[in-house]
Amino acid sequence: MKLPLQITTRNVSLSEAAEEIIREKASKLETFYDHIMSCRVLVEVPHRHKQHGIAYNVRVDITVPGNEVVVKREPNEDLYVAIRDSFDAARRQLQGFARRQRGEIKIHQEGSPTGYVRKLYPESDYGFIETLDGREIYFHRNSVKNSGFDHLSPDTEVRFTEEEGEQGPQAVVVIPLVK
């Protein structure tokens, strides 16, 4: 993790054992996806009902490159079960995210825009796509599916998924179209 784990509580104080379990489970998430930028955990007791007892909510926010994984499970009366369930769900979401990034899961691309690679900087691992309406979209080597960056050349037709990046539009998924 690039940033340290952040544990926040509301209307409850955690024991050292509970904090240690959260730290262990958060560090274990990196075995499923090793590019985690930050992880924030919120443990709260939103309402105290005399008849229903205490219910714990555990929310896990994980920041990964280009995305955020947010997990909030149903409240549970057992704090340790609430922690376990939230981290199990976070693990499953991270594994799915990693599979999508590796191209193992098909991303539904019908209706995705197409364009052509216009500028390519292989020494710096990036390039630009020219869209059919004339815009220029940045893309990085990691956005090209199935290790296809090395096979790109100017005028290669591609299908892409666009997001707004810090410095303008960028393609987060690039699939070369072979004809």
Structure description:
With 179 residues, the protein is of the alpha+beta class. It contains two helices and eleven strands. The chain has helices at 16-29, 79-102; strands at residues 6-10, 38-44, 48-49, 53-54, 57-64, 67-72, 114-121, 126-131, 136-140, 157-165, 168-176. α1 (16-29) packs parallel to α2 (79-102). The chain starts with 5 loop residues before the first strand and ends with a strand.
Number of strands: 11
Distance between the termini: 41 Å
Low-pLDDT stretches: none
Percent strand: 35-45%
Could you give the order of the helices and strands?
Answer: EHEEEEEHEEEEE
How many structural domains?
2
> What strand order characterises the main sheet?
7-8-9-11-10
Averaging pLDDT over every residue, what do you get? 86
What's the helical proportion of residues?
Answer: 10-25%
Question: Topology, pairings included?
Answer:
Elements: E1 6-10, H1 16-29, E2 38-44, E3 48-49, E4 53-54, E5 57-64, E6 67-72, H2 79-102, E7 114-121, E8 126-131, E9 136-140, E10 157-165, E11 168-176
Parallel strand pairs: 1-2, 9-11
Antiparallel strand pairs: 2-5, 3-4, 5-6, 7-8, 7-10, 8-9, 10-11
Helix pairs in contact: 1-2
